[in-house]
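Hi! If you just cloned this repository, the fastest way to understand the data is to look at a raw example. We've pasted two of them here, unedited. The first protein comes first, obviously.
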Amino acid sequence: MNKLAQLDQKYVWHPFTQMRDWLRREPIVIASGKGAVLRDVKGREFLDANSSIWTNLHGHQHPKINTAITRQLKIISHSSALGFANEPASLLAERLVKIAANGSQMPDSNGHRPPKFISKTKTANPSLEKVFFSDDGSTALEVALKLAYEFTRRTRGAKTKPRLLSLDGAYHGDTIGAVSLGHIDLFHKAYGGMLFSTDKVMSPYCYRCPFNRAKPERNDARKYRKCLWECVGLVEKKFAAQKKKGNPYAAFVFEPLMQGAAGMIPQPSGWLGQVTEIARHHGALLIADEVMTGFGRTGITCHVDDKTIAQITKNPAAAKLFATQRVGVTPDFLCVAKGLTGGYLPMAATLTTRRVFDAFLGEYEEFKTFFHGHSFTGNQLGAAASLASLEILQTKQSVLQRARLQKWMHEELQTLWTLPQVGDIRQVGLVAGIELVKDWRTREPFALRERAGIRVCEAMARRGVLTRPVGNVIVLMPPYCTTKTQLQKIAAALREAVKAVF
């Protein structure tokens, strides 16, 4: 066994990993990376099929980000944001606010619009004007949660006990507040005694929806479902019931377009716009968790073809960077992390409105300050990397490459329908979840003890492709620099792995 692998097994405790399993085999020790390729200490090459856990947007060793970090290292890497400002963080805050304000969207309808459960008068979107920096996705959500909680108390009365609503299967991070927002027993049940109570409402999981009367087909379940939008009706009922109790929900927390750790659950067209309007109608703040979905990850539009690419070529600015922009929704809190620095450094941001900001203004002795912060908040090195990443994202070259990659992904994913263990293929932009089942005709799931997803990913690794499953769902989320040939290799490795395992 390699010496570094020995040291790892002797000293390191890995996240979300059963260490007994880990200690049974020699781990892959990553030594270097370039573009979409990772290399281990034994010289083997692997394609990074999940962007190093959903973070690395542009590929490893991108020259522009490398240059930006190197330049900043020669000036200063970090100074405190408690009482001091700095140049890169100020510029980054301005850039994020301007990008968030660019809210018009590409045509995105594929039919199946839900019925209107409330007034046809659409609530006006707020304007995101302030940025609070933190360290990662969990802390970005923690910031939004605390701000929403205290803002509600200051606007509804100090005796108010704000309640929050999130989706079934939600995962919003690992800090105590973020865990309280989550509803995945596998992750959260162990900490139940430490958490505060939040409510949940049905997630629009079309493939396993109890209201979907459609029989299984070889297609994305969103496209052949038969229902009456009961999931939207349940959201309306939940808000109405809480309002009758005299304490309307303070905030509605959601991942837009695709729930990540829940199992890559995509939202059917029309769902997000409708449920956020319901939340607005009932006076709830909107907290959008775009930690995974942000910075172009949900793609250009719901479907990309040659016509779409031609449109983008003429007007690359039409490609929005946030999932909420895809449906014309501006939340009260926009939480970003992961890809903010292009996957180089841990950094996060929570964007919010002037209305929220103003509620925390007062004299020093009034103690209306937002008492929350992090040692590395707004650090210069992370901000410099983020500015470079955003500059890359807004180039015509990057926009066109993302559009092409989305199209290639769709084409390659269609080849997986021949596998009887593939029950559903869910793609939103440059994110895909392939749900493995015992038989696609019955949708019967594999038991967790069968480790179906893990075994398939292990078989993919033996074929030179690295990714990590969410239960029985294989996740594909390649860096934006991935070529068509590399994507074909990823799909081929998955096909071969499924055949080998089953």
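Ok, and the second one:
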Amino acid sequence: MATIDLRSLPPEELAAQLKEKGYPAFRATQIRQWLDRGVTDFEQMTNLPKDLRQELAALYTVPGVTILRKLVSAIDGTVKYLFRLDDGETVESVLMQYKHGWSQCLSTQVGCKMGCTFCATGMGGFIRNLSAAEMVAQIEAAQQDAGVRVSSIVLMGMGEPLDNYDQVVRFLRLLGEEGGVHIGMRHISLSTCGVVPGIYRLMEEQIPLTLSISLHAPNDEIRSRSMPINRRWPMDELLRACRDYIEATGRRISFEYAMIDGVNDSDACALELADRLRGMLCHVNLIPVNAVEGKSQQRSSKARIRAFMDILEKKGINVTVRRTLGADINASCGQLRRQEQQPGPGVDRKEALP
């Protein structure tokens, strides 16, 4: 019989399940306290009756992650992790230090279905969704390894968060519960490549996070070439959903725009982008794209990025250029997992691990 993911269960559901088995509701609180302390071995939950501990071990599991590989930037201390999940699959996560504290970029899926041409994650195909517990486990593992407290989260690692909607929202609820990592929603950024129904569902949740849209183009012709999802939900439909989201929540949207040489970085592209976003409560984040082995795209020059930024600013669009972190360790997600799946010529898999 398949075991139940204990960490992903809402406290009230756990209490109800325990009540059905004849245990008082306060046992659920005790179990949550052990989980929040990082204890996943039921035998170590010493204030629980032995028969309950045995029943928990038979019926429930607490998904976790272990560090398979770890790269640390000599430039800025950014840490890139390749985590192994309990079933042997792997995901990546990046720990970054900013002035305001430590931020972590998390994965929400093993692989990705979206097929964006500039991204390494989808090259290995889609395997499965992560559970809410596996998302939390990435934070706990990084905090324990680095000896720091993560104060902000970016759901911009491997996978499309809104394609794993229910578990991502459960993860967000877990973050807001007392105990555990306890990170406030205003310190969470969720990035989607444009799953329009998911944007509307998230709008109804009224979760005060920052919604980021991976736009990366000023029109359908360019966007459809690099982002297949645009053929399903074209830009007019996507931007209409964004405007509805802003109106309903009162929160500013961030548009991510990867600067790709000769593809989407011309003056004409900047002018068209400014026209599309005119009057919207938004921010544009220009991203010097990372080179990916097996992909032909190259990042725009600094001069081209500056010129693009100047045009947006003159048109009244709030714009910044993302600070590049972990440049010496290829800190964008997907590449470390791909190396683990397909070691290069002469690379022994065991020697590639720490």
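That's it. A detail worth noticing about the second one: The longest helix spans residues 132-146.
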